[in-house]
Every structure is written in structure tokens, then in C-alpha cells.
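Could you help me review a protein record that somebody else here produced? Here is the record exactly as it was handed to me:
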Amino acid sequence: MSLFPPASCPRLIVKIGSALLVDEAGTVRRDWLAGVAADIAERSRQGQQVAVVSSGAIALGARRLGLAKGGRASLEDAQAAAATGQIALSHVWAELLGAEGLTAAQMLVTLDDLEHRRRYLNAAATLDRLLSLGVVPVINENDSVATEEIRFGDNDRLAARVAQAAGAGGVILLSDIDGLYDKNPALPGANHIARIDRIDADIEAMADAGSASGMGSGGMVSKIAAARIANAAGAHLAIASGRVERPLSTAARHSLFVADRGASARKAWLAGGLTAKGRLTIDAGAAKALQGGASLLAAGVTAASGAFARGDILDIAGPDGRVLARGLSEYPAADAAAILGLGRDAQEAALGYAPRSAIVHRDHMVLL
């Protein structure tokens, strides 16, 4: 049985890595990709809506432009390669999906498009409409304009964010590896982990940051980060090998990260964010209160950093430095700093106006 059958997963996001889509010579693996298109068509006939997050633009463009290091020698090279390769990549997808009777649509996004709430909602609305029309959106990061400061850096986390925006129930990361191992699979004695019900420190310690192909940008670290984002939104995520023909209809070995009940849409967006404008450090008492569902009061905050405004996303860290939660600040940075550790009466004196009920309200906070 294939992963995430249509009956139980109405919407599916499939991410394809560069090493699967582009061969070592820098050309598209058309026969393999045609098999993927056939798989998508079969799922579509069964009623499943599928969106694809497709890598490969930089690798394709680098070959056409004759750029060294696969187009990743510099940011400028990567941007030029992406601009050149993206048009070729879109053409191939449109052609192969068209041969299966499907219409393809291109969506290029940047980190900012999914980190800013209004732009995120716009992207979500576009995805929803395309999928409801039976179109197959082919999504990639807009590497031609993205910089190191405002980019996902890998399509694993992008796929998870897209799943969240699309309200998908499942994500498949097709890769050059068949899942998570308890240590680098190149080492003797490495054991495959088939099911992960909770992402904890032990699971994160198993990750290897390298990309086996040298062509892509995502390793196991990015895949576990993607699983955390997807699971927070209620979507299961599988890491599966794409080194087989018809990978979406083949019961190949994989690792499945199982989602619990998803958070609300707003809180899932908060949990999946990759950027925070600032950081609050809290004491042990406040950390315990947050676990019990309380808002974060200024009295429990021991330190604040960052140049944030009211409404910006903040990381909330415990006394040991581990990020426990993320939420929207009720104060700008200067005012937050003025009331750290203070009770309500003292806050009014420090601010010169009546304080808010919390520095981060529980309705605008999600535990990680």
C-alpha cells in the first residue's frame, strides 16, 4: 500500500529533492519524473489533491550556465542559476503532468511570504483555490531573489510550511535516503527508525546535517525540523526513498513522523515559523505556569533581547536556554525591557500607562 492513501488523506504535499530530479550531468531524469507524474495522476483520479514542492532549479540552471559547484559557489551564482533553471523546471513539470491530463501551476515563494501572517493567508488562499480546481501546484523557493537572511535554505521545511498553509494531512519527503537512522547510515550497525511518535532530544541527536548527494541543501536536520512543523499542524510526515520507480505507488521503506491532534491554524503558523524578532528568557516558575496553559506575565521574565515591536513573534526560553514556546509580543522591546520581573502595580509606574494583562497572552502563544 502506498503512503497516505487518498481516502484518509484528502490533500498531500510531495517534496522532491534535487538529487532525484537531476542527474550528475545536470539534466532532468525524465523517465523517473514521468513515473511520479503518473503516480500523481492516479491519486488525483482517486480524489486526492496533490501539490509538489520541487527542488532542482539551481542544479538545472548551473549546468546551462556552466557554473562551478552546482551553482552554489556564491549567492549571485545561485540566484542566476535559479532564474535560469526555474523556467526549464516548470516546463518539464507542465509537460509531464499535461501528458497525464493534469494542469500544472507554478508558485514561487520566499521565507517572508510564509512568515508574515497576511502574506501567508494570501498564499494559503491561492493554494486552496488551485487544489480545489484540480490543478497541481508546483512550488519552489524563489531563489532568484532570496538572500541568506530571508530564505528557507531547504525545501524540506518549505514543504512542511506549504502543508500547513494548504491544510494537508500528509507530507512525503522523497529523498536519496529511506528515512531516519539511529546514527549515520553509512556507519556499520545503523538501525532504521520506522515510526516516530514524538520528536525529542534523542530523535534530534540522530540527525546528520549532510546531504548525501552534495547537490541539495537539506540533510536529516532539516527533515526533522520539517517533521516538527508538519506535526504541529496535524500533518503526518514521511521520509521515503525516491530511488525507486513510481515512488508514490510503491510500498518502500520509510520513516513516519506521526502527528497528534493539530493546533489551531494560528498557533500552527506560530509553531512553524522559522524567524523570531526577539527572545524572552523566563524563570522556572513561569515555565511551569506556561505548561499549565497560563499566559506569560512580566513578573516571570528575567531577560529580553531583540528589536521587536508589538505583535512580533518572540521565542520564549526557559532558565536552561531551551526554547519552550513562541508567541506574539504584547509590547515593543523598550517597554518589555522596562517591566521585566515587575508586578502589575510596578509595571504601571515604569510604563506611565496601564499595563496589558500579559507580556505574551496564551491565546497568541504555542508551546513547542
The longest helix spans residues 75-99. The mean pLDDT is 88.
